[in-house]
Write a structure and sequence with these properties.
The protein has a single domain (10-358), classed as Amino acid/polyamine transporter I, CATH 1.20.1740. The chain contains 19 helices and no strands. The protein has helices at residues 10-21, 24-36, 40-68, 74-78, 86-117, 127-132, 134-153, 156-183, 188-196, 205-218, 225-230, 239-267, 280-290, 294-331, 335-349, 351-354, 361-364, 378-416, 426-456. Bound molecules: 4-fluoro-L-phenylalanine. 4-fluoro-L-phenylalanine binds at residues 20-21, 23-26, 95, 98, 217-218, 220, 223, 225, 315, 318-319.
């Protein structure tokens, strides 16, 4: 569409969608969720859910986006199903909520880059004091939001695509190097076993729904980000193979980063099953970089946190793009105005999250759910609502919409453009079966039980 820009090539779309997917969710959040979820059992559920539930929904989102060339609200209106644009509205709310706290964590990553560049490896031990210093973190987060808004205001093809193409492979190589290093350390194997050999007694319903939420979050699914990006995919591109590549790239980064972290945690003799939470990579990694010696430690450590910040940036860009595309398409608001207005709003929504890690007692111990043994911070609370509840709900609605409202043959016809052998293939049968039966039934059940379990302390299983 004129004026909206587009990706210059098929690789451009894959790189940008993978850029959206790969971010703090893989490197910061995945390892600490694994440690809270009992290790390999969580990893197994996460991988299973991605293949069975997330993948078909990913294709559906991209197909809806490419078909309509619209934002997540306009897409449903355009197809003639105005009521279903509730999916897009939910998605936009979700994007605002996620970006509000994501930007704070991105500020931590950027702050760590600056600290480690100056040789301050002690920052690992000072993580709590660092996050409680809301002025400093507030400045870093502001800088991060400004950078995000600047890129989004430049339009989709020039900003997002260029950055992803160079930085993602660099991040992958650095991660591979660190994995190899960490596996050579004494005691690392204890961590590898914890990470790879499942203890099935650890599988509880909570482990299952946090693994599902992690899958959706990590792949940027369930909130229309891929509807928005799908609208930029060429009609001749094969979206099934694109989706496979995005999924594999995202899973690889998560799995490598978990492997690295558990090898490192074990080699330092720390508790693998820590309930440590959000500080995991920030407390463990600086000490590891210090062991490289001051020069190499600064180079590798600074590169790591800088690349993590860039990975976060390609994700924040996609998070901001969702509400912006909506405002620009539906209300014909000037793109720059939409970008800067939304960025400001989201920054304001994020202020309680900025204060939720020691900055204010109220936001740090924000809520205690019925039946929970500890309180949750405001930031955790937003994650529980957005990642673990809204994203799978969005996925559920997208699967029902695609199979029963839009209808499977229309869905197939869209995929078949750019993939001529799709109709009648085994790929089609599997995707139809999962989108019509598996996704609605499993996601529907998990959604209801999650709400009961998490927010009301009612444990039915
Ligand atoms: N997938 C991103 C990550 O794992 O860091 C987070 C994210 C980006 C979620 C974009 C949702 C989204 F629409």
């Amino acid at each position: 569409m004129a004026g909206r820009g587009g990706f210059s090539s098929k690789f451009g779309f894959i790189a940008a969608a993978a850029g959206s997917a790969v971010g703090l969710g893989n490197i910061w959040q995945f390892p600490f969720k694994v440690s809270q979820g009992g290790g390999a059992a969580f990893v197994l559920m996460y991988v299973l859910f991605i293949f069975i539930l997330c993948f078909p929904i990913m294709i559906a989102e991209i197909a809806i986006g490419r078909k309509t060339q619209k934002n997540p609200v306009g897409a449903f209106v355009d197809m003639g199903f105005k009521k279903w644009s509730i999916i897009g509205i939910l998605g936009i709310i979700c994007g605002v909520l996620i970006l509000s706290f994501y930007n704070v964590v991105a500020g931590w990553a950027f702050g760590y880059f600056l600290e480690i560049s100056q040789g301050n490896f002690g920052i690992g031990k000072e993580f709590s004091a660092f996050t409680a210093d809301t002025t400093t973190v507030g400045i870093y987060s502001t800088m991060f939001m400004l950078a995000t808004a600047f890129i989004v205001s430049q339009g989709v093809s020039s900003g997002i695509e260029k950055a992803s193409k160079i930085l993602m492979p660099t991040l992958l190589f650095l991660l591979i190097g660190l994995v190899i290093y960490s596996l050579t350390l004494d005691g690392a194997m204890r961590g590898v076993e914890y990470y790879l050999i499942p203890d099935f007694s650890k599988i509880t319903f909570k482990v299952a729904y946090t693994a599902l939420g992690q899958g959706f979050f990590s792949l940027s699914l369930g909130m229309g980000a891929l509807i928005t990006y799908g609208s930029y995919v060429g009609k001749n591109d094969n979206m099934v193979s694109s989706a496979v590549m995005i999924m594999i790239a995202d899973m690889t980064i998560s799995l490598l980063s978990g492997l690295m972290m558990f090898a490192l945690i074990a080699s330092q003799g720390l508790d693998l099953n820590s309930k440590g939470g959000a500080g995991l990579i920030f407390t463990v990694l600086p000490g590891v970089f210090q062991n490289f010696g001051s020069v190499l430690g600064i180079i590798v450590g600074a590169a790591f946190f800088l690349l993590l910040s860039f990975a976060a940036l390609t994700s924040t860009v996609s998070l901001l793009e969702v509400p912006v595309a909506y405002l620009v398409d539906e209300y014909k608001i000037n793109r720059k105005l939409a970008v800067w207005g939304m960025a400001l709003l989201i920054f304001l929504v994020g202020i309680p999250s900025l204060y939720a890690n020691g900055g204010s007692d109220f936001f740090t111990n924000f809520i205690t759910y019925p039946g929970a043994d500890a309180s949750s911070s405001f930031m955790d609370f937003v994650g529980h609502v957005a990642n673990d509840t809204f994203l799978p709900l969005g996925g559920l609605l997208i699967s029902i919409f695609t199979a029963y409202v839009w209808k499977k043959h229309n869905f197939s016809a869209e995929i078949a453009q750019g993939n001529p052998t799709f109709v009648g293939s085994w790929q089609e049968k599997i995707i139809h079966f999962t989108i019509s039966y598996v996704c609605p039934s499993i996601l529907g059940t998990i959604f209801i039980l999650t709400v009961l379990d998490r927010f009301f302390g009612v444990k039915l299983i």
